[in-house]
Amino acid sequence: MKIKLAHLIMLLGLAMLPFSCRFSGYTTMVNPGSKLSKATVFSPDFLKALYKTELTLHGRTITGIIVIKKVENGYQMAMVSEVGLKYFEFFFPEGSPFNAQAKYVMAVLDREPLKEALINSFGLLFREANYNSQTRLKINESETKVLLIDREKGSRFSYYYNPISGEVGQLIQNRFPGTRTSIKLSNYKNDAPGSILVYRGKISINLQRL
Amino acid sequence: MNHTKLNSLLLACCFPLFLGAQEAGFQPISDISSVTRNLVKHASATNTLQSNFVQEKHLNMLEEVLTSHGQFFFKKENNVRWQYLDPIKYTILIHLGKFTIDNDGKVSEFNTDGNPMFREINKMIITAIRGDFVGNAEFAPVYFEGKTQVMARLVPIVAQVKSMIESIDIYFDKVTMQVVKVVFIEPGGDFTSIRFEDIQVNKEIPDSRFELANGK
User: Fold this and answer.
1) In this structure, what CATH number is given to the domain that contains residue A144?
2) Which residues in chain A have Cβ-Cβ distances shorter than 8 Å to B121?
3) Do A82 and B192 touch (CB under 8 A)?
4) Contact A47, A70 (CB under 8 A)
5) Cβ contact (<8 Å) for B188 and A104?
6) How many domains does chain B have?
7) Are the Cβ atoms of B117 and A108 closer than 8 angstroms?
8) What is the pLDDT along chain B (216 residues), one digit of tens a residue?
9) Is residue B215 part of a domain?
10) CA-closest candidate to residue A135, choices A29, A23, A35
């Protein structure tokens, strides 16, 4: 019995290892203060952007241009091929981007699992981080990066961002059970990131601003 | 279905085409045989074609037009080089039954016979540029004429093409019967217009133009 208990403790320790390592180097922010900027992907004055895009779905790649446009109550997004054919168009409502509407999806791509994966991947990009009593804020040793963790509808969202500019460097959505989505953002040009790399299961999307 | 209902349906189907053509100053052509005869004559006399092009993508969601520039080469029977130079570098080559894409250095090859989607795109490009659609059972053409141009509106019959393209409008110069503009209209109203400039016909084009290694 003693051996079994030791094994159990060891297994629990191993299971906890990824969680303890994930936030290593970050300490809880006791009093963040008003100087801490909010996590931002698209700045409030963002209007629109074009991205050269490579979308890999289960090993097959389609390429083209993605247009993202801020509208009154959300974001419009469309992907067109280089020769001009539209692959898909979605509308992501502000405040509930995961309830996006598929305005058009080309017949060969019009499959529910695929649409769901695209909506969840891009929805995370347009989601605003929550700042409430449940939100946990941590900061790294050099105080150059903040980690914000908030939870919503069975998902845990992690935002790694610059405490001064608010620019988000990485976004992660973990669902239990469910597919993990990770987005890396860099090369911000005033109002939006210049590079966006999305990974979600067998889907990867590479967007480079034009 | 009785004749009245059939006529109403035909009228309903043709009305948007007629209206669209009228808005651009184009009228339906009464003597279709003369136009098709000219198109067939021109297509069979065209051995090579090269030009610059300006592509404009009109999306309903965007006020601005997405504009691309590039060069186009065609050589009988089925050799095409479709090269975008700005704002992105992207080349499509159709040569010896192969469809090659060079996306800014990343090269992918597809066999047009084994890939139905690329086969259809291949056909659409060649059909539109050569004006080689007379008697083609995959499109239902309707002809219109303006002051200086003739327009053929091709409505796809194949379901796979129909799901991507509502119609292809091909504009020809009335005198030379050269293709000067092609407009791909998508379901939902977005459209892509490709305007050809500095067109040169039957000028020698080496086969290497249709291969990446030498013609890059």
Assistant:
1) 2.50.20
2) 83
3) no
4) yes
5) yes
6) 1
7) yes
8) 343 333 333 333 333 333 333 445 889 988 888 888 888 888 888 899 999 999 999 999 988 899 999 999 999 888 889 999 998 899 989 888 788 889 888 898 877 665 555 666 666 666 666 666 666 777 788 899 999 999 989 898 888 778 888 888 889 888 888 889 989 899 888 999 999 999 999 999 999 999 886 444
9) no
10) A29
Read off the pTM.
Answer: 0.79
How far is C-alpha B68 from the geometric centre of its chain's CA atoms? Answer: 16
Instruction: Tell me which residue range forms the domain holding A173.
Output: 25-209
Kindly determine whether residue B61 and residue A69, on different chains, have CB atoms separated by under 8 Å.
yes
Whether B59 contacts chain A with CB within 8 A: yes
> What sign has the CA pseudo-torsion B112, B117, B118, B123?
positive
**Does residue B105 belong to the interface with chain A, where contact is any CB pair within 8 Å?**
no
Residue numbers of the domain that contains B13 = 3-210
Strand-pair partners of B139:
B156
When divided into structural domains, chain A yields a total of 1
Please indicate, yes or no, if residue A6 is contained in any of the structural domains: no
Minimum-distance CB partner of A67 among B62, B82, B187: B62
3-class SS letters over chain B: CCHHHHHHHHHHHHHHHHHHHHHCCCEECCCHHHHHHHHHHHHHHCCEEEEEEEEEEECCCCCCCEEEEEEEEEECCCEEEEEEEECCCEEEEEECCEEEEEECCEEEEEECCCCHHHHHHHHHHHHHHHCCCCCCCCEEEEEEECCCEEEEEEEECCHHHHCCCCEEEEEEECCCCCEEEEEEECCCCCEEEEEEEEEEECCCCCHHHHCHHHHC
From the list B108, B163, B192, the residue facing A107 with the nearest CB is B163
Predicted ipTM? 0.73
